[in-house]
Design goal:
By secondary structure, the chain is of the alpha/beta class. It has a single domain (6-211), classed as Rossmann fold. Helix content is 43%, strand content 17%. It contains ten helices and eight strands. The protein has helices at residues 17-28, 35-48, 59-62, 98-101, 104-107, 111-125, 138-142, 156-169, 176-192, 214-226, and strands at residues 6-11, 31-34, 71-76, 81-86, 89-90, 131-135, 148-153, 205-208. A five-stranded parallel beta sheet has the order 2-6-1-7-8. β3 and β4 form a beta hairpin. α2 (35-48) crosses α6 and α8 packs across α9 (176-192). It starts with 5 loop residues before the first strand and ends in a 10-residue tail after the last helix. The mean pLDDT is 90.
Length: 236
């Protein structure tokens, strides 16, 4: 492509958004932004600050830590994948732990946190085009004027098994039933929260990948990209 666009990929937990987005960004040489990883990074920070250890949630005292957050997505030559750095620390492995997974939907409900991460995403990554962004509210809220919007979905069983396999490969002891329960919980939290709930935007292209290979998903995406024209207006 001679012109650059913004590609927004939304969808349910463990629907393969990140894997798809990474492959698209690698092929197009676009910058990849994983907003879900950013929420996981904030969740990890919250765990470290012990905000979950109080019945009242010490949110007010936690919010000041969000003012100077610095996220970077850097290609790791050794692991051959994109790693997320928070304030200079590579947190890629730690944010995928079960302890973070169990808390991230709670953090994502907090309006002040959502607002801060939206500002960071728009300011740091949205000024220039040529990015692939995935998350829960990209097409509707963060980059509503993005040229191409994709909405990913899949069966609960399929998504649970995918997530279960990921955790097992990383050596985490868990059960498929526990992972599935967490996926269902996160689906409910994501779709029912009052601020920026997960929902398909009117002009999103829906892809149900329950029975579709990654190769076919990419073929669909690149066909759509080839027909997409860049917009001249400001994207945010």
């Amino acid at each position: 492509m001679n012109h650059k666009i913004i590609i927004a990929i939304d969808g349910y937990s463990s629907s393969g958004k990140s894997t798809l987005a990474k492959k698209i960004s690698k092929t197009l040489k676009y910058k990849y932004i994983d907003t879900g990883a950013m929420y996981r990074g904030v969740t990890l920070l919250a765990i470290r600050k012990n905000i979950f250890n109080s019945d009242l949630w010490n949110i007010k005292n936690f919010l000041p830590f969000l003012r100077n957050l610095n996220f970077k997505f850097i290609w790791n030559k050794k692991s051959k994948e994109i790693n997320i750095f928070l304030n200079g620390e590579n947190i890629q492995n730690e944010i995928r732990s079960l302890k973070v997974t169990e808390k991230v939907s709670l953090i994502a409900q907090i309006p002040e946190i959502r607002n801060q991460l939206t500002i960071i995403t728009q300011k740091e990554f949205g000024r220039k085009k040529g990015i692939v962004v995935d998350g829960r509210d990209i097409g509707n809220y963060i980059f509503p004027k993005s040229e191409l919007k994709i909405f990913m979905k899949g069966s609960v069983d399929n998504r649970s098994y995918r997530r279960y396999q990921e955790l097992r490969k990383k050596g985490e002891e868990t059960s498929y039933e526990k992972v599935k329960k967490n996926i269902i919980f996160r689906d409910n939290m994501d779709t029912s929260r009052k601020i920026s709930p997960l929902k398909k935007s009117k002009n999103s292209i829906e892809i149900d990948n329950t029975f579709i290979s990654m190769e076919k998903q990419l073929n669909i995406i690149f066909q759509l990209i080839s027909k997409t024209k860049p917009k001249n207006h400001i994207i945010i």
